[in-house]
Write a structure and sequence with these properties.
The chain has helices at residues 17-34, 55-66, 102-108, 121-133; strands spanning 2-11, 37-43, 46-54, 71-82, 93-95, 137-138. With 143 residues, the chain is α+β, with helices and mostly antiparallel strands. A 6-stranded mixed beta sheet has the order 4-1-3-2-5-6, with helices on both faces. 29% of the residues are buried. Bound molecules: flavin mononucleotide.
Length: 143
């Protein structure tokens, strides 16, 4: 059985690019063998991540991530059983919001900033789905 979950969190201390890279290195190392796919988005001190895969694998990884002291205030926004993956092309894709057309952010929020704490989980999920469809997903070359 496949599930998808979406959560948001706040970075514990300002995160340099190398620290973000480290999370992506861990993700690309671990996620393929667990059958986990998804996206990670980091902007202005906020993480948004969507995880897809088997229920046990997604729940186990989520429980690990929640205890990670690199972030706090982890809030589950969406949890759903799914018939098929939506982000299956990425072991953990990264969204560079600086490259995203502000009108796409405005479509779902009051301002052109990503604030998953201020909009519904479904709106954040719709935004990530649209980012994936519009080719806004990158992968750091180092991972
Ligand atoms: C925002 C955030 C997202 C993360 N996403 C993943 C992930 O998708 N996959 C993963 O294995 N670890 C992820 N981690 C790291 C885990 O919390 C944990 O440190 C890691 O899985 C441990 O793996 P290791 O034992 O191989 O070092 C994430 C951490 C943070 C703070």
């Amino acid at each position: 059985m496949l599930v998808r979950c979406l959560y948001a969190s706040r970075v514990a201390t300002p995160m340099p690019g190398a620290a973000l890279d480290q999370i992506l290195v861990q993700s690309h190392r671990n996620n393929p063998r667990r059958g986990i796919t998804g996206l990670l988005c980091y902007a202005s001190g906020v993480f948004v991540q969507v995880l897809e895969g088997g229920r046990d694998e997604v729940c186990d990884l989520y429980n690990t991530i929640v205890r990670d002291d690199r972030h706090s205030q982890v809030r589950m926004l969406v949890y759903e059983e799914i018939a098929e993956r939506r982000f299956g092309s990425w072991t953990m894709g990264q969204v560079d919001l600086k490259a995203v057309n502000p009108s796409l952010l405005l479509k779902y929020s009051k301002t052109a900033d990503l604030d998953p704490f201020a909009i519904t989980g479904q709106a954040t999920m719709a935004l990530l789905t649209e980012l994936a469809a519009t080719g806004s997903i990158t992968r750091r070359a180092a991972v």
